[in-house]
Amino acid sequence: MAKVQTSCPRCKTPVAVDxxxxxxxxxxxxxKQRLLSGQVxxxxxxxxxxxxxxGTPIIYHDPEKEFLFTFVPSEMGLAVNExxxxxxxxxNQVVNRLPLEKRKAYILRPQTMLxxxxxxxxxxxxxxxxxxxxxxxxxxxxxxxxxxxxxxxxSRLEVIKQEESLINEDFFNMFARLMEATLAQGDEHSxxxxxxxxxxxxxxxxxxxxxxxxxxxAQDVIKVLQDAxxxxxxxxxxxxxxxxxxxxxxKLSTITSLVRAGMDYTFxxxxxxxxxxxxxxxxxxxxxxxxxxxGYIQELDNQRQLQMGQTRKLLDAILASPxxxxxxxxxxxxxxxxxxxxxxxxxANARAAADLNRSANLQKIKTVLEEASAPPPELAFIExxxxxxxxxxxxxxxxxxxxxxxxxxTQMLGGLVAQTEAQxxxxxxxxxxxxxxxxxxxxxxxxxxxx
Length: 451
Description:
66% of the residues lie in helices and 8% in strands. By secondary structure, it is α/β, with parallel strands linked by helices.
């Protein structure tokens, strides 16, 4: 990514902009997410606050879908031959990275996009996202913004009833992403407003009632699993739990997602024996349940395989960079449990093959991951406080470590309280977090009075 010096379109202040022109999924699987995020080639003017895209030629390449798109902003005012002169070297970068066997005919026929929005829509269409779906999403976002701007609960309920056709599962998924982002930013005030609105949506919409019921079923079955695990969760117990949950697809899918590792050949052998020994009137239902479980497993395994493939591309791109550690830090947003697992596997393979260079780079990546995953001192302190049995013990420990009781600490606590409440975590956990928060505020006030 190159830095380009330009001028703010509004106030003409000189501004440095990070410019990325080639979005090649063959070399960087995360390039599509960056492009679609709308946060690339953006001018941020420190003088007047202007935010907007810098007009620059762009190449987008997706070898799996055989997409090669080019875009030159019309505001650049370039003749066709001048556009080709600028685009040609960028296309050559893409072609040169492709192995000979993957250089198909589409490479010779790049598609010209007249606007940036057209290119975005073509990319989304390739993922099965139509223009109608985009418009619907924009309507849902506008409704959410409208609801958040209405101060009175009665007025919000009126709007919710009027616009209930827009409040579907996609709306709640969008809401959940906004909630996660707000909590991650430590914005306690906004998190509380979102939590209040979420409760109103759940209680006053058809989809909300459905989600609430699904959440209750999922929580019930999680508790059953936790109770069964106290004395060791055997495959025999697991068969019993599935049989008891056979009438609920939510329970069956929830259990499968949590215990997939235990659903092996032996498990299904035990389940088949249970079905064979069941009364004739029970067998069809249990056989149907077994087919559902096999379908859930196949879906989970397919998702995992797809995710691992994308993760492997990301790891290969990081390892191929001149500085793997810096490349990893730039891609932290895309690191998940699959990435960590793959690094462990590849490190073991590299050591077994005595590949010292690859082993050293993978070890550097592992070290960065370990440093990044270490909890901040404040969070570790909260975990320690949660393990204590009563108020007096928590007060004593917090008074002994008063230097950790800061505004940032109470802000983190407030965010955790809002998050656990929004996720319907156990009441005991929420109560303990609130108690710790009250103690922290009390200590901060006491310390302030001493000054």
